[in-house]
């Protein structure tokens, strides 16, 4: 099995086009065409993690956080990032990071938090914009069924919980080929009228090249007429943060104790408690203070995230409880998610969960 095979599997659930613009995702170090001896999954790639990969004969590290985030002008080993890069290269170890692509996945980081907390009826808290595209094309009516089915087979026409969705209009198209043309139907130099079907389908943006390649491969015309537009429709399956519901409403203090235990955190910093039972819970792994207004607008009773600053807690305004359980603590189960997923995809291959605790924050 190649490193590329592992990458393809991860990008099925976390396509890189959905990563945030500021991020650095994908294969950071290594050659995707090399064979994989084993995969070590971690949250952060530190030197001890590379040592663990060497010890366990894993030449691919799948690290949630990217070890290379900004540009490196020199690699001399003067800091922990450069030392990790040097050690990985010296030992022929590749490093791949999905980071915010997995943050924005419907089955990613925040879905895992919801599962750990037992939340039901999960919804994306902040849907990512401009992730839905629309294809309009015109095809001879007797070829429409074949083309439509081919587009469906590569993911076209999927909307939320539905697939094979399209809109079709019958009409008559006209065209006249010049001397350089080679028309499949009609004759060059003569205006031809053809009974055609206009097919309209939506598709997620990461499938655009696949959709267009399928269109060109299955359309009978020499010159394919088509339009691709980006829609402003809300994508209910792509975006950051999640909101879900508890099976039974809980007292705020009892729920915070439950969160501390389940999320294995040494400290829960929270805003003033409100006199209301907890039912709707919003979560966002990592640094999530920016989404406090979104959690309030979504009607959450509590918002669980990390890296909340002093003045951010004022934004609760007695409308919501803000709970900061730590950056690492909100994301720590992500590596379990990836191991479980990759183990199911590659049943006869070594996928190893790193035992290194890479949390830089300690509690007294």
From TrEMBL:
Homohexamer. One of its GO terms (cellular component) is cytoplasm. The keyword Transmembrane helix does not apply. Coiled coil: none annotated. Gene3D superfamilies: 3.30.70.120, NIF3 (NGG1p interacting factor 3)-like (3.40.1390.30). Keywords: Metal-binding. A divalent metal cation binds at residues 65, 103, 327, 331. This is GTP cyclohydrolase 1 type 2 homolog. GO terms for molecular function: metal ion binding. PANTHER family: GTP CYCLOHYDROLASE 1 TYPE 2 HOMOLOG, NGG1 INTERACTING FACTOR 3. It comes from Galbibacter orientalis DSM 19592. SUPFAM superfamilies: NIF3 (NGG1p interacting factor 3)-like (SSF102705). Belongs to the GTP cyclohydrolase I type 2/NIF3 family.
